[in-house]
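Posting for a labmate who doesn't have an account.
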Amino acid sequence: MKTLAKRNGSEEASKVINSIDFETEEILRNMENPKRSKFDSRGLVLGYVQSGKTANFTALISKSADAGYRFIIVLAGIHDELRQQTQIRIDRELTGHNNLDLDGDFVEWNDYEDTRRWYNLTSAGYLDGTETGEFSGKGINRFADVFLSKDRPALAIIKKNVKILERLLKWI
């Protein structure tokens, strides 16, 4: 909000935030119930450069987790740089993970909330000292209990790449 208000003024920032809130609520209402025994749900975000796509789907991801979705995959283009940029942005605004020690504000989690913190299946570079970045298959045993958690959602940000998708499917 601070950055948006600095650029556009607080009134315009409020309009943008309210618009994102309204639109993501509408999308969430049209999604399948995550508590169903079997469902098949996907979404697609399209828009111009700098049109607010990432802000919208980050808000939707957050609301989806609150609604009970526990495994979310973001397909972030076909280039490494775009995938990493998307990972950093979502980490900054949603998960709070900052494994590259980047400057700037990242979401903070207190000790009480830590048990509900996101599982990142991908990272912007290093994860617990191991270079994993995208869902590379390295060190994925550390996520063996991801699907056992009812409190912690899991998030993977990957490129649209056959090998990466195959690794993810094999792991699932």
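Reply:
Got it, the structure tokens are right above this. The longest strand covers residues 71-75.
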